[in-house]
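Q: Here's a chain of 218 amino acids. Please give me its 3D structure as tokens.
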Amino acid sequence: MSDTRLVIFDCDGVLVDSEVISNEVLARELTAAGLATTLAQARRDYQGLLLEEIARDAGARLGRPLREDWISRYEQVRSEAFRRELCSIAGAAELVRAVRQAGIAVCVASQGALAKTRLSLELTGLAPYFRPEELFSAEQVARGKPFPDLFLHAAAAIGAPRSRCVVIEDTPSGARAAVAAGMRVLGYAPDSDAHALRDAGAEIVMSLAEVPALLGLP
């Protein structure tokens, strides 16, 4: 029997295969704004950050603020790309179903806005696996990842002790947030920096199919 009472899923890069899409759009939009940026640079410098943090950093590098509508334009272009290309991570639906069948609660806690999470889950067919009250966003707390606020908020809302929560993350900032919250964290690393995730305190998994055994599920 598992002693886990709640599995908290990050959305981007764990449930939905969105990181490359998002960062390709980000690289193009930053380049169009005057800050030449490649996909690799976008992922290295900005993956896991809030859009407001990205805009501030880009403005500082440019020596001038980005246009006031830059974030809204980026979100619009990204949504269009999601509708064309977004798919779920292999094994995501099966894992959520297995966790629920074991009597363990699940939720999503994303750095992104709730509207983005809802769209991502709908486009990939994962929306039926989560109730509306099981979706959480950094927009609901004072501080996003790498601070623990979001994960603590999700655990409190679900009613699970932090020591019995497991977080599945793909970014070092998310892993640090889980560790700071006093939670076990599994670092999903097939398309992420496994060394950075491990340094942030995560146990590395290369496939979601590995997770049930790590949770002690039958």
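Q: Can you summarize the key feature?
A: DSSP finds ten helices and six strands in the chain.
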